[in-house]
Each structure stands twice: as C-alpha cells, then as structure tokens.
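Bit of a strange request maybe. I'm writing a small parser for structure token strings and I need a real example to test against, not something I typed by hand. Could someone generate the tokens for this chain?
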Amino acid sequence: MGVSVVAAFTAVNRIDDFAYTPEQNIAHSMTALMAQNKGAGNNNRMQEGFRCGMVLEFIYGIFIFLVCFIFAKPLMCLFVQDEEVIMHGVTYLHLISIMYILPAFTNGIQGFFRGIGDLKITLISSLVNMAVQVIVAAPLVFSLHLGIEALPYSYLAGWIGMLVVELPLLIRTYEAYE
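Reply from user aminoacidic:
Good idea to test on real output. This should exercise your parser:
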C-alpha cells in the first residue's frame, strides 16, 4: 500500500488504542460485576449491571465517534507532520470512527459471557472476528486496491460476524437469567 499508508496506519493504531481501551475497561468492569453477582445468585443485579454497562458502552461509542470524526486531522497531527500521511490517516479515522459503536457492543457482550464463565463463546466469536477480517481484507486490498480504506471495512465485517455469533447466544443466555 506504500510508505505513506503504512505510516498512517501506524499513527491511527495509536489513536485506535486510546479509543478502544475505555470500551475494553467498561467490559472488564461488567465481567467482574457479572461474576460476583452470579456467584451470589443475584440474577437481577447481573441483568441490571449488564444493561448499565451496555448503556455506558453505547454512550462512550458515540462520544469517541464524535471526537475521532471531528478531530481526525488534529489527532493525526499529534503523531505525524507529512500531509500525505495525515490525509490517509484522516480517511481511516473518518471511516473507523463511525464503526466504534460496534466494538463497544462486542466488548460489552464479551464482558457478559466472561462474567458468567462462558469463555468458549468469547473465544469462538473472537476467532470469527479475526477470520472474517482477513477474508474480507484480502480481496479489498489485492483485487480492489482500496488501500487504507480496506481495513475499516474489514473490521466492520469482522465485528458484524462477531455480533452474528454473539447476539443469538446472548439473547438465549440472558433470558435464562430472568
């Protein structure tokens, strides 16, 4: 994809790390709350904790979307000065920021399953996410020559694949705790 795209991807990965970390930490908190209340047999508190955690994930997902979308160029300028690199990074951030709500949801759902001790679902959905990303990225990069735009689209496909695996299992499992 070229030196400028690789440099842009390196910079946006730093921004992505800052964007995803709170989503992951909200999910970790949900995991602890769910596990403690499952152990105590308090299903109502488990459900309330999950709902509150998902609301926090949603609010944060919207917040980080706005920050990264509106301030894409200034964020890129924190890491690089080359205009071509900044341009590629801004393109990536504009695309990926719209999608930040999806990893917020997948992190929250994984927090639920970790909290109830069902780690095979988190493993399977994570493997689906990675596999779909690779399967979608390859033709976007090698056949359609999309460049840096291919990556957010492949992430989108991976998160959708993850949700396709997780949501039916979440609904079935969540209802069992009612």
